[in-house]
Amino acid sequence: KYIVTMKPTACQFVVDELTRQGAMGACRLARHKYGYRVFQRLLEHLMPQQTAQLVEGIMLDCVSLSMHRFGTYVMQHVLEYCTDAQHKRVIAALIPQIAKL
Prior knowledge:
The chain is mostly helical. It contains 8 helices and no strands. The protein has helices spanning 2-5, 12-20, 23-31, 35-45, 48-59, 62-67, 71-81, 84-94. Helix 3 (23-31) crosses helix 4 (35-45) and helix 3 (23-31) crosses helix 5. The protein is globular.
């Protein structure tokens, strides 16, 4: 609820904490039973430059996340809310793995 009601700058501490944990922090959040919803709200309400590091973190594991029970919803939000460059990177990573998906 906090992310939805506050200004994007007031939510920066959430992004800072997740990026402090490294790329795996973002991936763990995307796979978590409730955390994936937090990730979705961050993508919906924060500015792209704020979420860029989080998105970069999940790019390393985007194929696996796309097939994960909760991670798939985060990847759908990446395609919906992120920049064109990020879209292209996700698609480029997914195309060679299309048979697995």
